[in-house]
Structures are given as structure tokens and as C-alpha cells.
Design goal:
The protein is of the alpha/beta class. The chain is built from 13 helices and 14 strands. The chain has 2 domains: about 120 residues, Response regulator (Rossmann fold, 3-Layer(aba) Sandwich), CATH 3.40.50.2300; about 200 residues, 3-Layer(aba) Sandwich (Rossmann fold). It starts with a strand and ends in a 7-residue tail after the last helix.
Amino acid sequence: MIVDDSVTARSVLIKIVAGEDDLEVVEVAGTAEEAIEKLKQVRVDLILLDLEMPGMGGLRAMPQILELSRGARVLVNSALTEKGAKATLSALSMGAADTLLKPRPGKFDDAYRANLIEKIRVIGSALSRVEPASFELSDPPARPAASRGRAQVIGIGASTGGIHALTQMLKSLPKGLGVPILVTQHLPASFMQVFARQLELAYDGEAVVAEDGMPLRADRILIAPGEAHMGVRRGSDDVVVAALSHDKASSGCLPSVDPLFASMAECFGDRALGVVLSGMGRDGAIGAKQIHEVGGVIIAQDQESSAVWGMPRAVAEAGIAAAVETPDKIGARIAEMADPSAWR
């Protein structure tokens, strides 16, 4: 379903999608209100949604659209996604799978077409699975009795669909968790300050974009800036601080989850807990293996709740995930495992 108030944009989008043999536009709508009514009658796999439209608009309509979507994914395709970071991140935190900057009329070039089709296929692939993937948990898996009070630091990696999952997970954490949380989310640098403010709304603590040498603190979230990898290192007086770098990551991502997890393994050993949330590709798998090899714990988001089960799948199928669960259950497990004693 294509939801856009611009007749020109709707026509171009229909032409782009219809040009692919395996894709079909089954419905169009010029307003969010119209989309809501049509979703009551028709079932779709993916909703291409503009945010800035007359009437209630895409952002205000997002909860109703998701409620009526019956599992369809939402791809935000809006001019707001470049300058309107707040609106875009709000849509992602509500449950949109991904975003794409909609060009101005006459600027729908080949690069945009290729990017749009790739995102539709990747997000849509999550809905076309016939059977769940098979995997084995790490041996031994993390048991509550054995892992309680073990983790001194929590590292989280996410990409496509990860903001919604991260928000859900943070909301399920108890107040005063007592350990630092480190987040690498694939986002442009211009979005990071707004992203930090959004995480503060979901979590009982401070969230800041990391700077090199910034100390880790209990109940503070440090976020990798969009233009650098974030890791950790031990500074003077054995204080653990953020370490930013610009080295090329094997995943090709910037920021990448691998340097975060690798540095956690080095600094915290078996006291490190890594979480891999929804995202395409395999970023985080190499670093997760390093945490696993030093006795730390890796938890992955489950297939059903992930917008794109790429990054979590990589660690699950590698046999290094101690648990594969929904974001709220991951939050509960983090609460069991957190060890605040090192930060008092």
C-alpha cells in the first residue's frame, strides 16, 4: 500500500514498484484517514507511508495503521526523514521498520529507485518466511541462577527495526538498574541528539551521545555517534571510558557494533553482556563471538518480533546466543543479570 498525498509521488512510486515482477501495489491512499479505512478492508505486506500529509498525517495515524496492519511492515517514505529527525525517530520508535528520504518532484533517480526496492525486499522478506529458522542456544545457555548479578556492562547493537525494539526493551527495565548501557544504532549523525532524548523518555536515566574519553556511569546510556565507532577502554585509575575510532569495520557499517562488543570483551571479560536487536546484515556477529569466547553472555532478539532478522539471526545461528527472546523479555533478563556493585 502506498500512502502519499502527492499525486505525482503516488504515480512515480506505483511505477517503480510495478516495474518489479515480484512486487505489486494492491492499494493507494491520499491521506492517512483513507489508509486507515482501506486497511480495514484489504490486507497488505508493506505500507509505504508519507508523514507530512493533510489531516492527521502519517505520524499521528501510525498507532492506528499499525493496529490495523495485521503484521504488515511500515516503511516511512517522507521528506521529513532528512531534516525532521524528531518525527522520523518517533515513527521508528512507534514501530516503523525503516525510513527513506523521499526526493522532491523530478528527483526520483536510479539511486532512489534501487534503495527503495532493496528496502522493500529486505523488510518484506521478514513476512515471507514459511518456517522459522533453526538454531541452537549457546552451551550452556544462560540460566537465571547462574547468571544473576553477573553483568557489569550492557552493550546493545541494532539497525533496521531496532529503535522500536530498543524502546520496548528499555521500558521493561527496572528503575535504578545500576550499570552502564552502551548503544550502537545505525543512524545518521544528524539524528543522534534527538535519538538520545528519545531514549531518555523510555529509560530511567541519562542518555548522551558519546565523546572520546567520556567515563561510563551507572544508569547512563552512551550512544555511538553517527560518524564514529564506539568502544571502551580502561583509562587512568582504571576508569573505563568511551573510545571512539574511525577504522574501517569488516561489516562496512559506521558506526559498527563489532568494535563495541570486541572492546567490551577485552575490558570486562565474562562480565560483559551483549544484546543484538533487529537489523539487516551481520554487524555485531564478530564482536559477539569475542564476548562469548571470554565467557560473557549474548542475547538476540527473536525472529517473530524482529522487523529484519538479520543481525540477531547471525549470532543465533552461530550458536553463541544464550537466549533468543522478545525485547521485553530481554529487558527482564538484563534486570536479573545486572551487577551494579562495580559502579557504587
